[in-house]
Design brief:
single chain; 240 residues; alpha+beta; Aminopeptidase; 11 strands; globular
């Protein structure tokens, strides 16, 4: 039986890079480890996503334990990504940069930002989840369980930013969206300010994953003092 406490200690060596995996441990995921006398590699399956990291020799052992079929992977470092590329047929790849922001307060703008309520999940889902029922449930859970903010104009929710997960050290920002009519008014900046300052109040480090082809979000993050710390890949691949 895999000891989740030992797995947490292994991942906690790099609590930012492996923050997604640390967050998923609370969901009681499927866990596999490899090593001789101690953990050298971890493979975790949660929400139908397989995440893995560790030494390549042991990662190969874990990877080869998977049955043939199509899987969704999250590679949190170059070694894990190289194993997936070597052992599976890639179907698609979504490379991202992970950024962190120092624990420094940002002077907030005068744009009114309000906490989201569960009823806002439906509107967020129209843009993030394309109306998918499962995505709606996830968004509603994120609104209810963690900081989530929005901007309204004439009773309409026109911009928002939520979180994907929170650990004891990290808060991962996400879902940032401004409706097209309301762009270039500083709304994205104001929402990110509020979440970063909320993170500071909780003594948590703000991190964010941004797809490499999302130039507006990359510019915003860098302009607000976020720094690149890791390269991630979200990809589907087939094991034959």
């Amino acid at each position: 039986m895999v000891d989740s406490i030992e797995v947490k200690q292994f991942l906690a060596r790099e609590p930012l890079r492996y923050s997604y995996m640390l967050a998923q441990l609370s969901n009681e995921p499927e866990l596999k480890t490899a090593g001789e006398g101690h953990i050298e590699a971890v493979m975790l399956k949660s929400d139908n996503v397989i995440t893995l990291n560790g030494e390549k020799y042991y990662l190969l052992q874990l990877f080869n334990s998977l049955e043939p079929g199509e899987y969704r992977f999250h590679a949190v470092d170059p070694v894990a990504f190289s194993v997936i590329k070597e052992c599976a047929v890639e179907i698609d790849d979504g490379p991202t940069w992970m950024f962190k922001r120092p624990l420094e307060r940002i002077g907030e703008s005068n744009i009114e930002v309000e906490p989201l309520v569960p009823e806002d999940a439906q509107e967020v889902n129209r843009f993030w989840g394309s109306g998918n029922r499962q995505a709606h449930g996830y968004i509603k859970m994120r609104v209810e369980s963690a900081p989530a903010y929005g901007i309204h104009r004439d009773g309409e929710l026109v911009a928002w930013c939520l979180t994907h997960y929170v650990t004891d050290q990290v808060i991962n920002l996400g879902f940032l969206h401004v409706k097209e009519k309301w762009r270039r008014k500083g709304f994205a900046h104001a929402l990110t300010e509020r979440l970063c300052n909320h993170a500071l109040d909780m003594s948590l480090i703000p991190v964010v994953d941004i797809y490499k082809n999302n130039r507006p979000s990359l510019r915003l993050a860098r302009s607000m003092g976020f720094q690149e710390i890791a390269e991630n890949h979200w990809l589907s691949a087939e094991i034959q």
